[in-house]
Design brief:
Blueprint (H helix, E strand, L loop, with lengths): L5 H12 L6 H18 L4 H19 L2
């Protein structure tokens, strides 16, 4: 018997045996990675940047009042 838990052994074997594009898990993972990459490339909206600036100013005012 191996010291590796059964579920990890199965996952490792599944990755080697069925790691092709026909594997639904690989298809989902690929599409999620592509979506995440696309979201990363999107610019930050100006409205959100304005809100962050207001928050910074409010924090500075709060610290100066202490």
């Amino acid at each position: 018997m191996s010291d590796i838990p059964e579920n990890q052994r199965r996952a490792g074997m599944a990755g080697r045996a069925g790691g092709g594009l026909a594997d639904p898990n690989n298809q989902i993972a690929s599409k999620l990675k592509a979506l995440y990459s696309a979201v990363e490339r999107e610019p930050i909206p100006d409205m959100f940047l304005d809100l962050l600036e207001k928050l910074d100013k409010a924090e500075q005012i709060g610290k100066s009042q202490l």
